[in-house]
Amino acid sequence: MPWFEEAYSPHWRQSIEVEHIVHEERTDFQTVLIFESAVFGRVLALDGLIQTTERDEFFYHEMITHVPLVAHGSPSDVLIIGGGDGGALEEVLKHPSVRRATLVDLDRRMVELSRDFLPGICGGAFDDARARLLFTDGLAFVAETGESFDVVIVDSTDPFGPGESLFEEQFYANCRARLRLGGVLVHQGGNPFAEWPRFVNSRHRLAKVFRDASFYWGTVPSYYGGLFAFGWGADDPASRELSAAELAARPIPAGLRWYSPATHVASFARPPWLEALDAASPGQLA
User: Fold this and answer.
1) Which among 23, 20, 84 is positioned nearest to 52, based on CA atoms?
2) What domains, with CATH codes, occur in the chain?
3) Is the pTM of this model over 0.90?
4) Among residues 64, 65, 215, 270, which is most buried (max CB within 10 A)?
5) Could you tell me which of 106, 161, 184 has the C-alpha nearest to residue 139?
């Protein structure tokens, strides 16, 4: 059988055996490959990089959504930038307090392909009456809209091509302007071991915008290196410092497979190596 090789770095690659190709095409914005894997089920790759898989998507989607939503306590309006696979949208809509979840993705075709080929990831999220789908540039949307949100989730592709502008300071500033009092922004932050310059630079950009700029972390088996960070931006550090008991007293969707109050608290714990990396300045990265 052929192998899919993800060449994220010129010095480090990973390969997954391909049982068969489910779908492949070039949209107006990116190359989409969906294939079947014995280990991961259906795998989605965009421009040669793995985005999500059927069997481990909950490691990622539960952490990028339930950590900020439970920390907020009663989110009503949630904005997702990117996330055309629908995995984050499905998790957000598990919260009964959510009145509307707005998903802004540049590529309409990605949503169509997810409906057709990745129902195990998106479920019925796109058809939920509370879901609003906007196919436009997320950068322009947050800069121009007059709407406000309780939580903003940046579920973008990696910082190349269409996703590059979603890691800049101005974008974070525009997101903060859209947040209501007590609001939280989270974004996918990549692997801090394999991509430490990106991790440190992103943290410093967040710190220029939010009074409480931090990160939490977890693991995603199909992602390059497994370790994965999520950027956190808020103005009140209290929302980041809740105990497991305080979190457990809040509404938490049933049936989750990764998120719990205990994993929530643990995700903010920092091994000394990550603590030192987080304290680094961009000038130290050469």
Assistant:
1) 84
2) 3-53 (2.30.140.10), 57-284 (3.40.50.150)
3) yes
4) 65
5) 106
